Amino acid sequence: MTRRLAMLAAACGLFTIALSPIPGVRTAAADQAPTVTVSTTSGITDGQTVAVTVKTNDGVPVYKAEAALCRGDVTYAASSGTPPSDFGPDGPDCPGPSHPISSSADAYVADSTTYQNAPTADGETFLFRLGTGVTEWLDANTGAEQSLTCDPTHSCALVVELQYRPTTDVNQPKQWKPFVFPIQYGSNDPIAGCGGAAPSVLDTGGSDRMTDAWVAWTVNACATHASRGAPSRASFIGEGQAVQQFGRGSLDLAYTAGGYGGAMDLAHDVPAADRRAAIAVPLALNAAVVGVGGGIKPPTSAKVPYKNLKLSAAEGAAMFGGGRQGVENQAAPDSTSDAPRTYADAIAARNPEIQQHGGSSGLFDSSATMFVGAAAEAEAFSWYGTRYFKQLAPNAWKVPDLPSFVGDRGKPRGIDAELASAQPTFEGAIALLSGRPALRKGLIGPGPSSEGGIWVLTDLETARALSLTPVQMEDAAGNFVAPRADELRASVPAMRADDQGVLVSDPRNTATVGGVRPYPMTFVEYALVPAEPLRNDDCSPRTASQKLLTDWLSYITGEGQAHLPEGMVALPDDLRASAAAQLKKVGASPVTGSCATASTHQGAPALAVAATPAAAFADQIATGDVAASLALAATLSPAVLERALLASILGMTPLGGAPAIATADPPAKTLIQELAAIPRYVAARSPSWLRAALAVAALMGLITFALRASSRAA
Asked: How far is CA 395 from CA 313, 333, 583, 607, in A?
C-alpha cells in the first residue's frame, strides 16, 4: 500500500487491521548503503518468522547485525563504539534474550557474517521470530521494573542495529545505526475496521490462502470508497467445504481454484442436480509450491533461510508420497549397486546449501514437530501438486515399499484434492494439517540454533506469508523453474477451460512465452458466484445484496488487483477481459426451482415458505399447474422426490393412519407423522376443490410414472 493510502487508512482507524504482507515493504535508507529490509511487518501473528536482509556495497563494510523486538514508540539513537543503551539487552526499551515476548518468539538475534555476504547481490539474510504477548524484566542499568506488551493495540518494533564503517578507511571509527520497523499485529477483523458489516452483507468463504487478499481488499475498499460497512463476511473453512456450501446455497460467493468442474470436483458431496448454477470470475494467479521452512546455521551467525533449492519431480514425489522415510530409505533412480544413492543423497548433491550443512543428514530439522506436511482438507493446490507428481514422476509417486507401511507398501498414489481421505492413505508418511494455523504451529518449533528444513506442499501466497522458501521444480523437459510472477503468467496461454469455464494448467507444458518457461503447477483463483439472481428464503429478490455482489466483484477484479498479497499475481490482460465478460453473466440467468414457480404465479395467493424440498414440491402441486409440477420434479434429487411421493402415498392409504403409527417404533412413528402431514399441507393450501382435484391428479400421475420407471429399471 502506498504511503498516501497508509495515512488514509490510519486516519480511518484501520491501521490495526492485518494488511496483506508485502516483503521488502520497509527499506531503510534505500538510496545509500547499508540497507535493511524485512520480509513482512503487517498482519503478524505469534511465532511468525520474518526474514531480515542486510545489503551494502564494497565501500561500506558491515561487521555485525543485531535484532531485537522492542518498544515501538521510541526514537532509537545511533552511536559509536558499543550499541546505544536504548537498544541494549534488558535495557529500558528492549528485553534481553532470556525474556522473549512469548515462548514462540525470539527476543534477540545476532548475525556476524554480514561482512562477507552483505556486499553480494543477495545480501545477508537471517531469520527472526516475532511474537505477541507480555514480558517483564529488570533494567540491567537501573534495576527498575520494565514490561513490554505486543499485540494489535500495543505498538512494538523490530529494531535492527548495524555495526558498520561508512568508509573503507580503517582509521575511521565503526558506528552503530538503528533501522526501526514498526510491527502491525493482525486482528483479522477488517469488518470492525469498516465500522461493521454492510446492511446487505454478502456471505463468502474459501481456503485460508485467501485470507490476506480478502482482508486487504476489504480494508482498502472501505478506506477508498467510503462504503457503508464491510461488503462481505468471510469464513475460511477450507476450499472444499466452501464450494460445497456455495453449491447448497449457504454462501453467496466461494473463493476457489477448482469449483464444481473437471476431475477436481470440490463439490463431490453435493449431487450434481442439487448444485446451484454458478459463474466463475477470475481473480488472480497462484501456484502449488513446495515451501521450505527452517534453514542453515553458520557457526558464527544467526540461522539463515534457504535461498535457492531445487527438486526433481521424482524427488518431490518420493518426499510427499513417503515423507522422510520416502527420501532417506528409498533408492534414487540413478542408484546402482556400485554407487548406491538415496533420494536424500540426490537432493543434497543438487543443493549446495544442504550439501554444505550436513549433507543428506541435514535435509530435515530434527528438532521440528514435523518434517513433511500438506493440507488435510480439500484444496486445489493439493490436487495440482499430486497431479504434477503423478504425471511427471509416476514411478516415484507411490507408497514407499518399506515394512512400516504394511499393506499399502508399494501401492501407486493417485491425484487427490483431499489428502485426508485419499487411498492409499498418507498416514505414517506425512503430517496432514488442518489450515494455516496448524501449519504455522508446525513451523514454530525449531529454534534459532537448529538446522535443516521443514518441507510443505502448499500454495505460493501461503509460502510467502509464512516466510517459506519456494522450491524450483523440474518441468517435463528437465528444467528447474521457479514460481515467480513471469513464470506464472507464462503458464496461462496453454491453460484449458474445464466444463465450468475454470482454466486448468498442464504440468507437461514447456512452451516458453517471451523466453520465459512456464511454472508447471500454476492455477487461477476464482470467485464462484450465482448465475441466478440472489433470493431470500421466501423467494423475494435480494436486490441490495445483488448490487453489493456486482460492486465487490468489480472492485476485486479492478482496483483490488493493486492490493493482492505477495504470492498472488494480478490478472494478465486477457484474464481481466475474461473477468469483465463473466461479470455480465452474474445474476443474469432465469430463476429456476421452487422460486421460479413463485415468480410465474404472481396473481396467485401467497404461499407459506416450504419447510423442506418435499414440502416445496407439495406447494407446487397445490398450484394446480401439472406441467410446472412435472418440471419441478425433474429438478429434485431422487431422494427428495422419493420422500415427496412416499409422503403422499402414506397420506392416502391406511399406512398413514392410527394403526400404523401405533405399532411403529419411535423413529418410524416420527417419520410417518412427518410424511403423512405433507398431503394435508397441500390440501390446506388449495383454494378450491378444482385445485385440490388437479393436485391429486398430478400427484397420482407422478406416482404412476415413478412406479413404471421403477419396474422398467428392475
From this structure: 10, 9, 43, 61
Query: How many Cα atoms within 13 Å fall on the side-chain side of residue 349?
Result: 10
- Domain termination site, one of 183, 213, 231: 183
Domain assignment of residue 13, yes or no = no
Tell me how far apart the alpha carbons of residues 339 and 318 are, in angstroms, rounded to a whole number.
19
pLDDT digits (tens, 9 = 90+) for 466-476: 889 999 999 99
Q: Mapping DSSP to helix (H, G, I), strand (E, B) and coil, where does residue 37 land? A: strand
Q: List the CATH number of the domain containing 265.
A: 3.40.190.10
pLDDT above 70 for 657 = no
Residue 513 lies in a domain: no
Mean pLDDT (whole number) for 360-389: 93
pLDDT for res 714: 45
d(CA 310, CA 666): 63
Are both 129 and 243 inside the same structural domain? no
∠ CA(422), CA(424), CA(427), 5° rounding?
Answer: 80
pTM, full prediction: 0.71
Mean predicted confidence (pLDDT) in 570-596: 94
In a domain? residue 641 = yes
- How many helices and strands, by DSSP H and E, does the chain display? 21, 25
The full DSSP string for 634-673 is: HHS-HHHHHHHHHHHHHHTSGGGSHHHHHHS-HHHHHHHH
pLDDT at position 600: 47
| Pairing status of strand 472-474 against strand 452-459 | unpaired
Please answer whether residues 183 and 158 qualify as being in contact, where contact means their C-beta atoms are separated by less than 8 angstroms.
yes
* Chain segment 665-707, per-residue pLDDT in tens: 444 444 444 444 444 444 444 444 444 554 555 555 555 544 4
- Specify the long-range contacts of residues 221-227, CB closer than 8 Å, at least 24 apart: 221/552, 221/555, 221/560, 222/12, 222/14, 222/190, 222/193, 222/194, 222/195, 223/5, 223/8, 223/9, 223/12, 223/14, 224/5, 224/8, 224/559, 225/555, 227/194, 227/198
Mean of pLDDT values over 495-505: 94
What gap in Å lies between CA 661 and CA 669, rounded to an integer?
5
Query: What domain range includes position 102?
Result: 21-183
Q: Is residue 657 part of a domain?
A: yes
Instruction: Assess whether pLDDT exceeds 60 at residue 96.
Output: yes
Sorted by sequence, the CB contacts under 8 Å of residue 176 that are 6+ apart come out as 78, 79, 80, 81, 82, 83, 84, 87, 161, 162, 163
For residues 269-284, average pLDDT = 93
